[in-house]
Amino acid sequence: MTIQTIPTISELRQALERQRAAGKSVGFVPTMGALHAGHASLMEVASKETDLVVASIFVNPLQFSATEDLGSYPRDLETDTALAEAAGVGLLFAPSTDEMYPEGAVLTSVDVAEISQRWEGASRPTHFSGVATVVAKLLSIVGPCVAYFGEKDFQQLAVIRRMVSDLSIPATIRGCPIVREADGLAMSSRNIYLEQDERIAAVVLRKALDLGIEAATNGESSAKAIGDLMANTISAEPLAKLNYAAAVDTATLEEVEQLVGDVRLLVAAQVGRPHLIDNASVPTMKEGAVS
Ligand code: PAF
Hints:
The chain has helices at residues 9-21, 37-49, 77-86, 97-100, 120-123, 127-142, 154-166, 196-201, 204-217, 223-235, and strands spanning 4-6, 26-31, 52-57, 91-93, 145-150, 171-176, 240-249, 263-271, 275-281. It is α/β, with parallel strands linked by helices. It folds into 2 domains: 4-176, HUPs (Rossmann fold, 3-Layer(aba) Sandwich); 189-281, Pantoate--beta-alanine Ligase, Chain: A,domain 2 (2-Layer Sandwich), CATH 3.30.1300.10. The site of pantoate has 10 residues, from strand 2 and helix 6.
């Protein structure tokens, strides 16, 4: 199927109405462009699971603070379109900022309390509100769909899941596994900012997660012990500046005490210019197994 690029909300809605009238199910992959194999994997899963894949490319100003890289965020619509087409996208929604926010100032925002304030939210207090607001708007434009998000931005996924549940938005949210480089570094559009030595050092995030998983597999059930192990591993890398390392509840992202139930390991560090994040699931004990 040849990809069709659509710049306006009304044209996208019309195109989707026609497809739905023909009985087609819709998969949706929202992105900010700078597409890589991680995005392609979301599009490929969407194209296996739904009849028509819509992807969006929109660098959303609401989720950048004044000191972040909005102006220099990588943009290459031609290359992105080719990747999206090869990955099975049928409709590519690529609106301008004026199309998305015609009034200029945006007076309505979506705030998912608590989950948004932890971890990434501690240093980026307005970020998740910007993400939740644009995703709510995109889901309202696309309509009922299965929406695909990478687990790499695990906090973003938790925020969106909670927003969709709280607001009864008619979308099913699917988290998809992190796609990694051969040495284990999680793929990210911001990895291009890494200098050569930083790129090598960045693997320490994956190494910290692996050590945390190994300790849990060997019977360590104290979340603090696992968090300390991961933090010490990252701190031992001279080019990495630790931001956090913790074991958290998968839905609320609250720090847990014991590895019981659904727990996720989160790590974050500054390596050169980019702030890198990574996460992994971890083997835990059954509820009631820890006294
Ligand atoms: O993960 C991203 O690329 C963005 O945060 C998203 C979900 C497309 C919202 O702008």
